[in-house]
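Teaching note: in complex prediction, the entire set of molecules is handled at once rather than each chain in isolation. The prompt given to students was simply: 'Predict the structure of this complex.' The entities are:
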Amino acid sequence: MAIPKGTIVEPGSSKKNKTGSWRTERPVFKHDTCTDCRICVLICPDGIIFGSDHVYDADFDYCKGCGMCATECPVDDIDMVPEVK
Amino acid sequence: MAEQAVKKKKKTKPPVTESLLAPGHRACAGCGEALGAKLVMDAAGPNTYVTTCTGCLEVFSTPYPESAWKMPWIHSLFENSSAVAAGIEAALIAQGRDKDVNIIAQGGDGGTADIGIGCLSGMLERGHNILYVCYDNEAYMNTGVQRSGLTPFDARTSTTPVGKRSMGNQTNKKNLPEIAAAHGIPYSATATVGYPNDVIRKVQKALKIKGPKFLQIHVPCPLGWIHPTDQTIEVAKLAVLTGLIPIFEMEDGKLTRVRKIGKNRKPVEEYLKAQGRFRHLFKGTPEAEAELEKVRQIAEANIEKYGLA
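The expected output is the structure of the full assembly:
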């Protein structure tokens, strides 16, 4: 790892660190009853739910599996399932 | 069917773009502070200079040599986030680059209410055009949940442990937004991540006002408050609905707007039971019952003072 001179670092460079490995449960977006309200997009603490037009999905490179999207979804269109192999 | 398709098309919103707080930061799953910071940054936009004092927010967002911030960001000492922001403002004015930029100083509750209150007071008094955002997770979470000036009554922390002779923290939350408003600043408000659109509205409103602004955002911490990671928003909402965290706006020292609870009011037990740090209040002993009554009185006093009913 090359360390830059001084203490100035690249903006947004934390993306190098994939936090998806922290996850024990994964959100499954069912794309069934979605009303396009975007509450899941708004409240994701990592800002990694993307999509448009009633189809949204989490970026599993970074999703930590907190489950906030599934709890807050007003139409219950997101399920949390254990991350097992 | 065709009609439905047309209706759906009308509602189409632009695709979601990436937040100004990049993913990959080391906040715990379900972190309320990460959510709060994301909301504030996206509301402020890219033309923003940000300072952050030491604390959870600084530690999880910038593990060297990485940074989650997509705007100019600087880490100050624990006490001087507001003073560094004041320096940035002075430098921008001297260079003639102070038009159409926002300056946001940030800190946790410890860095704001305890360690940094001197510098914060100076910044508010000198009248800099800066928005100070305090993320209030009610203890020093970064170093292992020690009590701060914003820790609520009866909360268990590692420096106010619970036992035979102690029922947790025996002091009340410092009323920081009113201390800020007492400086005669144009805008001082509280918000909570339980109502994210309210946070966005308040940040955008504050940034339109010239002069020093103060915003305190209540952010649950699943680790320190001991609740499941998916309950962050629910716990934040309960804090408001029980009357323990009043949400209000003060302009020029006067209370101008409050979030009414009204019929939705919930008993304080619902909020306390959702968190492990208040578990000792539900032992059923007379002492615990007496403490619960004190918490109920705090909620009652808040509701009366700010007219939340």
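Point out the following to students. The mean pLDDT of chain B is 92. Residues 25-306 of chain B form a domain with the Rossmann fold fold (CATH 3.40.50.970).
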